[in-house]
Amino acid sequence: MVYLDNIIIYLDSEEKYKKYVKWVLQKLYDEEILIAIKKCKFHIIKTNFIRFIIKLECISMDLKKIKAIINWQDLENVTGLRLFLGFYNYYRRFIIK
């Protein structure tokens, strides 16, 4: 998964992971794309990424966003409705029907 200046690599085996990380780093080097290795994190099991919490077993909503839904103010105008629908559309895969 790549988003602007973030790269997340997730694979089901350690061997595949190491091989793919090496490949990605080599591609970045070949294209002269500089990275700050001090900012890189390897072998992590949980991270926050673009308003989601990514774990080995699943992707879930950030708890702050769940609280925002629970505390959502009553819709008083069209603008408020549009904001709510935009929020809903972004997180709809996590909402149980």
Briefly characterize the structure:
It is built from three helices and five strands; from the N terminus they run E-E-H-E-E-E-H-H. The chain has helices at 14-30, 63-70, 78-91; strands spanning 2-3, 6-7, 46-49, 52-55, 59-61.
| Class computed from helices, strands and strand pairing | alpha+beta
**Distance between the ends:** 27 Å
* Strand elements, count: 5
Order of helices and strands: EEHEEEHH
The 3D shape can be described as elongated
Weakly predicted, low-confidence segments: none
Helix share of residues?
A: 40-55%
Compute the CA-based radius of gyration.
18 Å
Discrete helix count: 3
Residues in β-strands, percent: 15-25%
Structural notes for this entry:
This protein has three helices and five strands. With 97 residues, it is α+β, with helices and mostly antiparallel strands. A hairpin with a 2-residue loop joins strand 1 and strand 2. The longest helix is centred in the first third of the chain and has 17 residues. The mean pLDDT is 83.
Give the arrangement of secondary structure elements.
Blueprint: E1 2-3, E2 6-7, H1 14-30, E3 46-49, E4 52-55, E5 59-61, H2 63-70, H3 78-91
Antiparallel strand pairs: 1-2, 3-4, 4-5
Please give a handful of descriptors for the protein shown.
97 residues, alpha+beta, three-stranded antiparallel sheet, elongated
